[in-house]
Amino acid sequence: MKILVLSDVESKYYWDFFSKDKFEGIDIIVSCGDLNSEYLSFLVTLTNLPVIYVCGNHDYKYEEKPPEGCFCIEDEIFEYKGVRFLGLGGSMLYDGRGIQFTEKEMKSRVRKMRRKIRKAGGFDVLVTHAPAFGINDGTDLPHRGFEAFRELLDTYSPKLFVHGHVHLNYGLKYPREDMYNDTKVVNAYERYIIEI
């Protein structure tokens, strides 16, 4: 399966210079959050591909105007062509604005997902906005990852973990791709294509 992942910055490559050829071979589009709802609606309309998303910490406007034609996978397992995507959006609580959670709150969300995970027989792709703690996250509170995500990776060993939030243009050396045990970890900043 060929997956286009997006996060944090609307790509001019797609939005300003759209061409259907750029999506050839893509099976699904996955947003890791902090993207304009119109951008996601634009992509689903013009590509005719499924678009799934989790919310970033700045996506509180989705409550009033969600991306049309897209599937929100917050606290859900979404299956497409035999691939199971588990979604958990938001970031670490740092200023109380937007979609933010404490570590305890995120662990509670994960605990509530356990039954769905068992029922689905696990999951193949973990889709989040924030990174996992200690895996390409920041040292400051706003960009620190969640231990709850690392525990999911340790317990279920999905093929792929995609996240956003830590921008590759911050000047820090966040890798685009990494490995954590048997899981490929990808920072979805702006746009990236992955095959699993």
UniProtKB/TrEMBL annotation:
<dbReference type="Pfam" id="PF00149">
    <property type="entry name" value="Metallophos"/>
</dbReference>
<dbReference type="InterPro" id="IPR029052">
    <property type="entry name" value="Metallo-depent_PP-like"/>
</dbReference>
<protein>
    <submittedName>
        <fullName>Predicted phosphoesterase</fullName>
    </submittedName>
</protein>
<dbReference type="InterPro" id="IPR051693">
    <property type="entry name" value="UPF0046_metallophosphoest"/>
</dbReference>
<feature type="domain" description="Calcineurin-like phosphoesterase">
    <location>
        <begin position="1"/>
        <end position="167"/>
    </location>
</feature>
<dbReference type="InterPro" id="IPR004843">
    <property type="entry name" value="Calcineurin-like_PHP"/>
</dbReference>
<dbReference type="GO" id="GO:0016787">
    <property type="term" value="F:hydrolase activity"/>
</dbReference>
